[in-house]
Design brief:
The structure holds two protein chains of two kinds. Chain A is mainly alpha-helical. Chain A has a single domain, classed as Amino acid/polyamine transporter I (Up-down Bundle), CATH 1.20.1740. In chain A, 74% of the residues lie in helices and 1% in strands. A two-stranded antiparallel sheet of chain A has the order 1-2. Chain A is globular, with a radius of gyration of 22 Å. The longest helix of chain B is centred in the middle third of the chain and has 27 residues. In chain B, strand 1, helix 1 and strand 2 form a beta-alpha-beta unit. In chain B, strands 3-2-1-4-5 form a five-stranded parallel beta sheet, with helices on both faces. By secondary structure, chain B is of the alpha/beta class. In chain B, helix 3 crosses helix 5. Chain B has a single domain, classed as 3-Layer(aba) Sandwich (Rossmann fold), CATH 3.40.50. The radius of gyration of chain B is 16 Å and the shape is globular. Helices cover 49% and strands 22% of the residues of chain B. The chains are: A mainly alpha, B alpha/beta. At the A-B interface, helix 6, helix 12 and helix 19 of A face helix 2, strand 3 and helix 3 of B.
Chain lengths: 514, 144
């Protein structure tokens, strides 16, 4: 089986058939070495710590921002929660606008871009390094992130570009330019260009390579080991046929299956939790202990916090600016309504789905505890916690689920591939919007981006997890640097919109149709 | 003229019979006719990012096409027979939208064709005629 796949893959490449057995593995190694050495400096810059601590400044940057937005908008995530649900249900939708994109559709599409490997593999990475305590910080970051999402999505809709043919383009690059101009602030254009560059890197990194990498990990987990570039090429061909070949049916089928896969995943997790109901109290105990005390993991409680915050941001993308691109395509009379709807995303993505993954991993006892001290045992490198079968990333989640449901690894493999695929398609869209902002709209420039995007799928699948995850994180977080500067300077505009909307809601000028 | 009659129309043979029936009723009562075409649309489906981006343009295109290709051919010549005819095209759930038009326009009745749904699909999803019978604010005539 293994040799067959190799020969097939090589024939596709049209490479020489000599030295078949050694060559395939060495391609992966070469890709990995070149990739790790060429991106290392960028990763180090983004993840450098505050002087004298081991706390990465970028994590602080995101959390401080989310906290400031939460306070500035008076705990909007709780205050507007009921109204957000009513909007999604369609209570405030004018029936005469039927046929336009509904709030539900906007939310579902934005979610399918964020619900993905971050929820399955990312959480496993966080728990594998930070222990159960990381879950606490993950949930907290998810709750705070709701306010960041609210802010950026409102601005995304407010400052989008509408074209005569009825299509729209929006996102941080547009509110950074137009919003800054309106407030008479300098540097808007420069920030917009910076954001676009980072967004393209993010599309290649977390939106692409990480997905390809973990999809490959999941497949090998089920069918056995084979070189990553083969998975990469298969994925690249499918993505190519959708984004270049215009095979829209694949994308739209994925878009319809992904929500059901998400529901299936959560329901399965719930069943596993119910089967182990006697350990739920213990699991939450572990989560609280690990969040505030040193349970033996690398970096102690601070290590747990860093992992939790990092993976939450990576999963729900609050403050990153990608959701602002997704939501801005929706037509609505009130930009702020998209903000309300979008604040549900971190809740569903992080507080619900990520927590499910974490609880299943903890409850099924995947992490190895020292029987005498009760502290977690570390691997040789002393950075990750030992797991029962030495699993990491998506393989850890897979092992946790299969421990209760034999054969669930096959379901999970399908889910992972679909999630990876839908996230890739979403990020190819975000990346393309940034690319056309920089280079203008046109068939040739768009084609260049799309081809590059496909090349990175192969690199991502071939490289090993460490360098890929580092680069993916760095690229996504660098988007947040620029985006959040913009959010700080433009948040008074959101406040004005919020006050005006709330006043009209109270006075009955905005009322329910249903 | 005493009132208005809403007739659901989708260019199917059954809808044509309903329109003929409605025309006779309108002439007999001296009512006005509202010929309505509803494009089935649910706000709870899943769309891709491209579909969302193109949605507004597509919606306008689909409405224009409904007006041009379905409603216009149906009502041409009706005015000459001495009835006032309006056309409406909307998106939404067919039965709900027809009921809403009747309510908004203060129509006296709704006339629809009994479209030939097979037993199974109408059992699962319900037919337009069946839902209207349940939900309409005014009298409903179902034309076989």
């Amino acid at each position: 089986m293994n040799t067959q796949v190799k020969i097939l893959g090589l024939a596709t490449l049209g490479s020489a058939v000599s030295a078949v057995p050694v060559m395939a593995q060495s391609i992966d190694e070469q890709v990995n070495a070149v990739f790790a050495s060429s991106t290392g400096w960028f990763v180090n810059l983004i993840f450098s710590s505050f002087p004298g601590t081991s706390f990465p400044w970028i994590v602080g940057w995101l959390v401080v921002a989310a906290t400031i937005f939460t306070i500035y908008f008076g705990f909007i995530q709780f205050r507007a929660f009921g109204h957000a649900i009513a909007l999604v249900k369609g209570d405030y939708s004018d029936p005469d606008d039927a046929g336009e994109v509904s709030h539900f559709q906007a939310l579902a599409t934005a979610l399918s871009g964020t619900v993905g490997l971050g929820n399955i593999a990312g959480v496993a990475v966080a728990i594998g390094i930070g222990g159960p305590g990381a879950t606490f910080w993950l949930i907290l970051a998810g709750l705070l992130g709701m306010a960041s999402k609210f802010t950026e999505c409102t601005l995304g809709v407010k400052y989008r570009n509408e074209y005569p043919d009825g299509t729209v383009s929006g996102g941080p690059m547009y509110y950074l330019t137009k919003g800054f101009e309106e407030r008479g602030l300098p540097m808007g254009k420069i920030l917009a260009v910076l954001f676009s560059i980072f967004c393209i890197l993010g599309a290649f990194g977390g939106g692409n390579m990480f997905q390809a990498n973990q999809a490959h990990a999941q497949i090998t987990n089920v069918v056995g080991d084979y070189p990553g570039w083969i998975t990469g090429i298969v994925f690249a061909v499918i993505v190519f046929s959708v984004i270049v070949g215009g095979l829209k049916s694949i994308a739209s089928v994925t878009e319809k299956i992904v929500p059901f896969m998400g529901i299936l995943y959560v329901v399965t997790a719930l069943i596993i939790l119910l089967m182990n109901y006697d350990r739920i109290g213990w699991a939450f105990g572990e989560i609280f202990d690990g969040a505030f005390t040193n349970t033996g993991i690398a970096g102690g409680a601070v290590g747990a916090l860093i992992q939790g915050f990092k993976r939450a941001a990576f999963s729900n993308e609050a403050g990153v600016g990608s959701a602002a691109i997704a939501h801005s395509a929706v037509r609505t009379k009130e930009p702020i309504t998209e903000g309300f709807v979008s604040l549900l995303e971190p809740l569903i993505d992080t507080v619900i789905i990520c927590t499910m993954t974490a609880l299943v991993i903890i409850i099924t006892g995947q992490l190895v505890v020292d029987a005498e001290t009760g502290r977690y045992l570390l691997d040789e490198g002393a950075s990750t916690i030992q797991t029962v079968d030495g699993n990491k990333g998506v393989a850890l989640t897979s092992a946790a689920f299969s421990a209760s449901f034999g054969g669930f690894q096959y379901v999970l493999a399908v889910a992972v591939i679909l999630f990876a695929f839908s996230t890739m398609i979403s990020w190819s869209y975000y990346g393309l919007k940034a690319w056309t902002f920089l280079f203008g709209e046109g068939q040739t420039t768009e084609l260049v981006f799309k081809l590059l995007f496909c090349v990175f799928i192969v690199i991502g699948a071939a490289a090993s997890l460490g360098p890929v995850i580092d680069f993916s994180d760095a690229a996504i977080f660098s988007m947040a640097i620029v985006n959040i500067i913009g959010l700080y300077l433009l948040m008074p505009i959101v406040k004005r919109e919020l006050n005006s909307y709330m006043a009209r809601l109270d006075s009955g000028e905005i009322r329910k149709f249903a | 003229m005493t009132g208005k009659i809403v007739v659901g129309y989708d260019a199917s043979p059954s809808a044509k019979r309903a329109l003929d029936f409605a025309l006779d009723a309108a002439l007999a009562n001296g009512s006005g006719l509202i010929v309505a075409h509803v494009l089935e649309w649910s706000p709870y489906t899943f769309l891709t990012k491209e579909e969302i981006e193109e949605r507004h343009a597509r919606r306008n295109m689909e409405l224009a096409r409904a007006e041009e290709a379905i409603l216009k051919p149906a009502v041409t010549g009706l005015g000459a027979k001495g009835v006032t005819v309006e056309t409406v095209s909307r998106f939404g759930n067919i039965a709900e939208v027809l009921a809403k038009i009747a309510r908004d326009q203060k129509a006296e009745q709704i006339i629809v064709g009994r479209t030939g749904h097979s037993g199974l699909t109408s059992r699962l999803f319900g037919s337009v005629a069946g839902s209207l019978a349940q939900a309409a604010p005014v009298a409903v005539t179902i034309v076989p």
